[in-house]
Amino acid sequence: MSARRVSAVRCGALLCLLAFCSASFAFDREALLDEANLLVFPRERQLPAVELVDEKGQTFTTDALRDRWHLLFFGFIACPDVCPTTLSDMRRLLSQLPPAVRDQLQVVLITADPARDTPEALRTYLSYYRSGFKGLTGELPALQEMSKALGLPFVATANTEGDYEVSHSGNLAIVAPDGTLRGHIRAPFKLEGLRNALPRLIEAR
Asked: Is-contact 38 150, C-beta < 8 A?
């Protein structure tokens, strides 16, 4: 084998090794969990076909989760602490990300309180944050199916009279542009870590 061919083979092997190391680093799940409380699943998970209603009163299906990265969580408008804190944290996080990364992300609040959280109420509530957040509501069975698929449990309230609260997960689900569930951002949020980890996750796809 000629010296030139040997050099080319070595160069190719080095490039393959660097690509492998880069991909391994991008999906170093233990590092992401420690750094950003970001849990990446070993394998993507398909989502069922679920039909909901968005904050504009338009039909929203799980197919609409394609073409962008989505960060989804369950909550409710009357939530006194977890939900407004989550939305404020996500607004702060998005403001710190590079525009090219921020434009690929959509934050979505799915209500765990469909009796009170109408599309109009969600639209008004989310407009306070001025960050382009989306809201989803729908029939309780569809919401429960979505909750189970995303791994974000909530406990439906039988008595919807007067003031009441809804128990729900504080985590966010990460859905990739191919419409599959890739992992969770777990509470409490590590915003500095997420600011560094999310671009790596998005670039690695």
From this structure: no
**DSSP annotation of 65:** G
Q: What is the rounded distance in angstroms from the CA atom of residue 160 to the CA atom of residue 181? A: 31
Query: 182, 188, 186, 187: which is closest to 200 by C-alpha?
Result: 182
- Tokens 């989310």 sit at which residue? 126
How many residues in total does the chain contain? 205
Kindly report whether the global pTM for this prediction surpasses the value 0.90. no
* Residues β-bridged to residue 168: 154
Give pLDDT, residue 151: 98
Return the residue matching tokens 């991008």: 26
Q: Which tens digits make up the pLDDT trace of 56-94?
A: 999 999 999 999 999 999 999 999 999 999 999 999 999
Distance CA 90, CA 189 (A): 9
For the purposes of burial, counting CB atoms within 10 Å of the CB of 12, is it exposed (0-12), middle (13-18) or buried (19 or more)? exposed
Joined tokens for residue 96: 């710190």
pLDDT at residue 2, as a whole number: 52
Q: Do 147 and 102 form a contact (C-beta atoms < 8 A)?
A: no
